Records
---
Amino acid sequence: MKPAGRAALVAMVLGCGGGGTEPTDDAEFDFAFADPAGDTVAATTNPNQVRATDLLEITGRLDRQRLVLTLRFANPVTRWTDGGADALDGFVLFDSDTSSASGFANPAHGLGVDFYLDLRDDGFGKMAVVNFAKRRFERAEARFEDATVTVTIPRSFLTTDSDRDSWFRMAVDIAGRGRRPDVDASPTAGFHRIEPTAAP
């Protein structure tokens, strides 16, 4: 995502979808997506041009109550609130109605983003899940363990008023500190599908 697009993504809390409704199905499944090793680029806009931690894998489990999402990196993860030059930054983008025509348009991944997870922690074990349409955010539990970050997101945080199934489109953009440039994206182009038929 270009800097202007990223700034707009952060500043504009716009789009489609709602929140607060419960999913109507009982789908429960695991998923896993690999990301190539060594594919990060130098974050040239941060003070020391530090290369971000390399994302290697996205795994998770979805059930009626929650989405548990784990990001595994090549090296130990530094929290945003630790203040390091290589601190984790970026977004996990969710297209919950699987339509690029609604939500915030993200051409790089072909998504209509309804919600996003901000990978900057708050210093108290939480990360923000932002709902564009409602212009609000909820705090999700985030656990840092060496080279992994696991975030537990209640399903209600990612559910729109019109769409309550278990299907999501998702993409991850890891950024240099200060949110630019993107230094690793999963997938590099397009999106991952979180749905029972796409599960391993």
Note: The chain has a mean pLDDT of 81.
---
Amino acid sequence: MKKQRKNTNHKAKRTSAMVSHQPASETGVDRRGMLRLVRNVAIGAAVLGGTGYVFAQNVMTTMHEHDLDRVGNGVSTIVQIHDPQCSMCLALQRETRKALDMLEGRQIDYVVANIRTQKGREFANRYGAQHVTLLLFNEAGELQDIVQGQQGSYQLKDAFERLLAG
């Protein structure tokens, strides 16, 4: 059998060679390239701006949540004595947040005393509390109850409702 040679399409090659490009501007960039550049810069700026906004909001929320000066500010407050490297503390934090969500809009503050910081350690020592503990304060900043150890969200919700009722 004879091998067949591929038929090269000379006409297509000639046509592609004859396509003229848009004239370049004085800067050497054509209009389509400039539009792509502007679009890409705009998209990049939007992505960076959005990421920066989310990061800033996260930092502000964390700062607010760790503000121990909010105890006694006229709102009932729950302070979690917390070690961020403790799995039981993280589990208690999740359950506490679930319980707070179940309170359906009633006013109660949630504050975290991180025992890895000096201020958090001093706060915990003042009340003789270990990590994996919740301290429940009334509106005047008086300690009303102490919840120690891991608890479920429904148990915590009941404790929080007693705090709000008292």
Note: The radius of gyration is 32 Å.
---
Amino acid sequence: MAIYEEASLLLAAAKKDLRALQGMLNPAVFADEIFGFHAQQAVEKALKAWLAFLDVQYPRTHDLTLLLTLLEAHGQEVSDFQDMTELNPYAVQYRYGAFDEMIGFIDRLAIINRVHKLTALVDSHISPKSWSSLVED
């Protein structure tokens, strides 16, 4: 799959999870672990889209710390997103575990805003305008 196509597909998937998050603001309807799972997935897919755009091979992982480390190792500024690693416990491998004692209050609006900031940044990197300037270099 072409680099741009893979990055675009991953980012589109991240944006779908972001839209789902926006519909999950009511904790009486959506449990924290369901909201957290989709937040973690949105971040994971956005980071993988960014890596794909850079043509960096990334492992099959749900570990946001590892993905951020890979981006940083390839010269990307990711310090603004280090706090997103707090979503790691919501990754698919933990989805079926007991969450009662794991995590306290989850600030849904803050998380939505952070995920939106990340997807917007990745979108700006992989937009056709950015892509065409890289191809011309």
Note: Residues 1-12+29-98 form one domain.
---
Amino acid sequence: MAGFRWAQAQCVNILETDVRLTADGVPVLIHDAIVDRTTDGSGEVGEMTLSDLQKLRADRLFPGWDGDVRIPTLDALLTMDDPFEQLLIEIKNDLPDRLQRLIPLVLEMIAQSNVADRVWVSSFEYDILRQVRHLAPDQQRWLIHAGAFGNVVDLARDLGCGAVGMPMHLLTGERGRAMQAAGLTVGGRNAIGPEGARMLAACGVDAITTDFPSQIGEWLAG
């Protein structure tokens, strides 16, 4: 949560985060399948309970953050005061039995929250997006695209996605306009520094994704 608050201070108005399931069935927000890289512990998220995970400090890469530096739960994000304007919640690929439990749980928690209209569910995985569409047809879906540009519009339509996140090396103004003309929200991924942000903005994207918001803070503020 300390990291989310820090991002808001950098003028970030859309938060993208990743969700996984603990051994005791709690959706938590962490990118990696294991905790070793980002915390002071080790082990697989899916084999640890929430109590196990919340004993860890998740500020290994960013020591010195103020506030709560534990691995947060999805519930903590959905109920936070002063929420983000929009949330992108990426369901990470996992073992089939975990996904079978995680996907409906995430959708139920979003639907019951006060910020449901602000939330997109995203994934790289087509099967996950199809399951989301089956279980919650009205849930906004965001395709994180990693392949060639080619058939992305048809693919998004097939998955019922209203938005596509494209890596910046595949984006041009012409491609961005083509997706927008098809009714898609276009996100440009992997911006590094103000130069990357400016390039994506020049392509006319609706959103810019970066792992380094501090590097484009002045550009965002301006």
Note: Residues 143 and 164 are 5 Å apart (CA to CA).
